[in-house]
Amino acid sequence: GAGVSQSPSNKVTEKGKDVELRCDPISGHTALYWYRQRLGQGLEFLIYFQGNSAPDKSGLPSDRFSAERTGESVSTLTIQRTQQEDSAVYLCASSLVGSTNEKLFFGSGTQLSVL
Amino acid sequence: QQQVKQSPQSLIVQKGGIPIINCAYENTAFDYFPWYQQFPGKGPALLIAIRPDVSEKKEGRFTISFNKSAKQFSLHIMDSQPGDSATYFCAASKGSARQLTFGSGTQLTVLP
Fold first, then answer.
1. Is A25 part of the contact surface with chain B (CB cutoff 8 Å)?
2. Contact A91 B43 (CB under 8 A)
3. Closest CA–CA distance from residue A16 to any residue of chain B (Å)
4. For residue range B83-106, what is the model confidence (pLDDT) as tens digits?
5. CB of A56 within 8 Å of any CB in chain B?
6. Which contacts (CB < 8 Å, 24+ apart) does range A94-99 have?
7. pLDDT at residue A22 greater than cutoff 90
8. Which residue has the higher pLDDT, A70 or B79?
């Protein structure tokens, strides 16, 4: 695709439900990131995938959060037993790896609202 | 803790003004300082970036000033336009983009 695609764009769920967010990175981009953006705050790193390497999960806030990536394509971020503090915009980004300080290309995000 | 502190939180200027957004960092190992621009409902997009071997970088109307000794860097927007109204994030990293630490953002409004 032309850019990073995320779905759904908006998700409203009830506290305690599980949600699954999807990210389609730019074709050929080997690196994929998930960030969380709370209202009025900066971007908070969640997880990073690079090729077949083990993902860097150091930013996941709790064991309710998990993510998978199929090869070098689609990724899903799953939040189990959602809590109100999980309400945020979840952003996915992809990049080409090979040079220092590679540029991140972000999707438009999924606005998650937990009632 | 690696932090990047950004100010102001919000900024309003008249068209043609020169808004300045400031960031300060703690980790002297940082070697890459990008600025991202985010419009409502969109993801952030890379605007301009600088490395610490230069004190200033210009791209069009956007300029980064970098002060290594003070561990500060700033974004200046010359001849600002209403279309520049967006949220601006500074960031810093050592090495790859995976290590980017973002500031808290500045919401800029340029009045017509």
1. no
2. yes
3. 26
4. 999 999 999 988 766 678 899 999
5. yes
6. A94/A4, A94/A25, A94/A26, A94/A29, A94/A31, A94/A32, A94/A33, A95/A29, A95/A31, A95/A33, A95/B97, A96/A28, A96/A29, A96/A30, A96/A31, A97/A30, A97/A31, A97/A50, A97/A51, A97/B96
7. yes
8. B79
